[in-house]
Design a protein that fits this description.
Blueprint: H1 4-139
Amino acid sequence: MTSNDDILRALGRVEGRLTGIEENVSLLRNEVNDEKENAHKSRSVIHRRLDEQMRQINLLDKVVEISSGVDATLREEVRTLKDTVNNNHEAVVPALAEWSRMKSIGYGISGLIAFAGLTTGAIVTYASDGAVAALRHWLKIN
């Protein structure tokens, strides 16, 4: 049979092991708490990044909406201006044709005036020879 000393010794060993187990459990709890804190920090960083990305995507969506609205407005303005230019062109075509005809007539008239000037110059030149001879004869210059 076992004596009280043996029982007390066995209880001491059990108590020592329990103390060691408690210390290990305490260390594990501390490590788990540290990991939880690190995980929490990491998740908060990820959530902040996701929130920032969400804000940027929302801003880009707004920019795209505004740009598409501006693009549609500009297309409508260009279409309106194109119609206006076409209408104005149709209204101006007869006047441009008339102007072109007047320009052609003007070139013809300018040509006739130039020809008349040349003819007059030639006549004056021809007549000047006779006029010089008549003046010399009148002034009696040889």
